[in-house]
Batch of 2 targets.
Target 1
Amino acid sequence: MSMDWFYDLPNLARADPEIAGLIKKELERQEYGLQMIPSENFISPALLEALGSVLTNKYAEGYPRKRYYSGFDFVDPIETIAIERAKKAFGVPHANVQPYSGSPANLAIYLAICKPGDKIMGLNLSDGGHLTHGWKTSISGMLYQSVPYHVDENGYIDMDEVKRLAHEQKPKLIWVGATAYVREFDFEAFGKIADEVGAYLIADMSHISGLILAGAHRSPVDHVHAIMTTTHKTLRGPRGAMILVTRKGLEKDPELAEKIDKAVFPGLQGGPHENQIAATAVALGEAMRPEFREYGAQVVKNAKAIASALIGRGLKLVSGGTDNHLVLVDLTPYGIGKGVFASEALEEAGVFVNKNTIPRDPASPFYPSGVRMGTPTLTTRGMKEDEMRLIGDWIADVINEVKGYELPEKEQRAEYLKKFRADIRNNEKIRETGQKVRELCSRFPFYLGRG
Ligand code: DSN
């Protein structure tokens, strides 16, 4: 199947060449670079068609068969299919597929379960937790009393601390989930602790929901009351989110599903994005196929291969490795706050990662001491362990070029970073690595050049 229309954008190029030109450039950046931000993925052409469809024109406040507008002969069945596929895929009795994305979905969960001022527990941000799990600059940390838990010195969630804090603080809600955590979650242990203190246990499995569907990570379904997942990470769907209520959740509160639905609409959102919901349905269909199990297993194998390659080159990883789709490089052996140098130098070579805090980071979240990288997109392109070993080596080469840069005091930072950026543009090793990256990407085409 020719994919040329992706590139040519014939109608858009005529109507608005400026935007069309920038989209083409972005497509080339994605295609000819290594996209290793672990919360990203490449969606299939089928999903792109659903997402770019006329469904975006439809206003659809309410839920299937309970709408506030007319014209639902086709949109209601689409949303119903998405709901039924979500229920079947994850084995839950209730699914809401309308959340615009992860942060509003988490807010809807708070709205359904908590009152302002209630205590909540989540993994601390620099230990790998998410902003919406109670961080002070997020509304979750402003409206609720946040009691963060942490990882131990080996990078595993400190379950003794979770238990102690839960018993001391008696939170209303406990989050289990993360954005930068490389180990499997012990959902069973969390479930026991939540039950002991009468808390709601909510899994935020945004990063790992694709791995769970693929059988590459254990499922939280039997141990938590509800689950939030974004749809665009390892699940390989459109940008969006879902909230799932489990049987355990309905046993704790038979009205939980209704409360969640009311919190999403009308509590928090207006009209759902039906084009996004159709693409979610297609993504769930793809994720229930046998090939997706192979995909999930390969994502993890690839992350382990990258981890071994980096360790082999002397880099330090948080927790010393990975059990899932991502690795977190701890750059403190070279000094503090070096994530910015590594991520910008890698970008110059066409390798896209993100600077990230590490547990007990001595630097600020703006200039953290780590970089986070993952394998979902590379695996979608068909890359395997051999390619990961090469990529791990190239990443180590680039980090080696910039590990000596030192972050100066605030006043001198802008000038220093300007000079640093000029240096990496002129660095021969980084330029060579960039050529190798482009050549590798050309051998694993996804949207372009499949003809
Ligand atoms: N910021 C996302 C991530 O990159 O993991 C989560 O919201």
Note: The chain is about 50% helix and 10% strand.
Target 2
Amino acid sequence: MTKSNYTAKDIDLLEGLSGVRKRPAMYIGSTNLYGLHHLVWEVVDNGIDEALSGYGSRITIIIHKDGSLSVQDEGRGIPVDLHAKAKVPAVQLIFSTLHSGGKFSSAVYKTSAGLHGVGAAVTNALSEYLDVTVYRDQTIYHLRFEDGGKLVTPLEELGKTTKHGTLVRFKPDSKIFPSVEFKWETIYNRLQENAFLMKRVRFILKDERSDLSHEFYYPNGIREYVATLTENKKAIGPILFFEDEVNEIKIECALQYCQDDYNESIYSYANNVRTIEGGTHETGFRLGLTRVINDFVSEHNLLKGKAKLEGSDIREGLTAIISLRIAEELNQFEGQTKTKLGTPIATPAMNNFIYSKLAYYLNENKEYAVNLIKKISDARDARLAARKAKEEARKTKKVKNELIISDKLTPAQSKEYGLNELFIVEGESAGGTARKGRDRVHQAILPLRGKPLNTDNVTMERMLKNEEFATIISSIGAGVGSHFDLEDAKYGKIIIMTDADTDGAHIQTLLLTFFYHYMRPLIVKGKVFVAVPPLYRVYKEANKKLTYRYAWNDKDLEKAKKEIGAGYKISRYKGLGEMDAEQLWETTMNPKTRQLIRVKIIDPLIVENRVSVLMGKDASRRRKWVEENVDFSLEDTFLEEIR
Ligand code: 28G
């Protein structure tokens, strides 16, 4: 770069970005993989906003071999004219000014303003380089930043073109991010989600590191989203799809009921942002749904003399996607993570919307209506039966069903259930070691023989016949499926402890598949964990004194080698079985020294994709997937350290 190009204005702009570099987590949540991918979303969201405004129907993302990533849209191209006040090209400003998203966007419905929504300048601030190429007014424009947003190539013209759009290529700064490796699957899932929500837009993802590529294009939008989420389930009737505009809110909703599904899976969005914490639109949806079903039942004199249907009965086995488009000024986010819709009018809008659409549909499709009401009333009966059984058990003080539990479980002594931990351990021998090493007061051990049953695609009846799961269910003591009641759980933590190899990962997935289908509240409320055994032990014996360190990854290993000093030896743990009771306690079970990963459902698609690919019937699809994801870990299936 030539120093003379650098003006006082450029330096002012750079100062804002240096704040981002000093405290990146404030802007992108963290500097782990979550934050790394946030750089991608900021740029992609701008391309999506342009498409939402009606310009461009294709967005291409390429992961390059050098660790950079590029995003190209076919919109109008970012304006290059000098900004009236700042006197620098608008495009330069967008990549140098924080929060430029809100200020500069002309989109009526904006994607961002969600979790962090701080604009592409943040991506620039945290990149080794960032190139912007604009195709606009028959001209190719270009500018380049390096080293956290320093303008090294001011806006230049590269030639003529007939194209229009914007191309951004950036390489995350390895001084900021411990890992700068983009994950194919993380980006894949996010783009798929976006594609479902934007039926007009084609998303193309290419990975030059592995030659993988994929195109997402769903002309049927969220209908296909619901179809994907329910592809392994037994559907009751067709996927219903409704859309309307109410009080200037554009509403789309797709829903499907399934047999043998005891969960409610309602996923809502506002302007393409997933509203994880729900909010006013979800509230309205639930109100309207409960109202329309109960009104339909009483109008047609169904279920005479039977107990009222509750909302939970009506939502059991329901998978629904709700997508709202709200004008920017009405789009309010609240909640701890700003993923809760606060817009008040969304409640009556959704309430009336789902009421009128579904009432009409049910009256026009009596056969469907009868099947649905039957299913819902079965759910109500099951709920009442479970409650009655529970009350009986309490009356007869038969709660001491620990006695019925098979001899496989080594229980904890404490009756303070919330503090107790259930370790589900791979293998009888590791189970034995864990039994010896544990804290007897609060830790219970349940060893597993072999691989647990794959509970995807089997009925509950079949699952209950499986001894391992029967034992898990009775050990936890809180019921199963729609009868599951978190309050009755005998443990505050369920900890899956397996070897750190592919078999171990498979067992984790099988167990999580079970918890996901039959005890989902455990996962939703963050009660399920995966234990992380160490991979190495670094040790040395000198002057009859043994010193040692454990290492969970290669970084730890380097640190441990340094701490132990010259003459160290390394033993690599291949499985839990290689540790004695004391070592297992110290490294993997002791709450003070162990590492646990909390299981979360980050994204319904990630879970359903993984579950259906890994657990489904199609072996060739599974093999291909495993080949493509050789380094897969559960971390991004069910698990994520969200900040
Ligand atoms: C490829 C990666 C990410 C974008 C546009 C297009 C316009 C724009 C972007 O304008 C500043 C504020 C309001 C005009 C808007 C072009 C209007 C007319 C745009 C992107 C200037 C922002 N012509 N495409 N920003 N506006 N794509 N893709 O970032 O007044 S950002």
Note: Confidence is low (pLDDT under 50) at residues 100-105, 625-643.
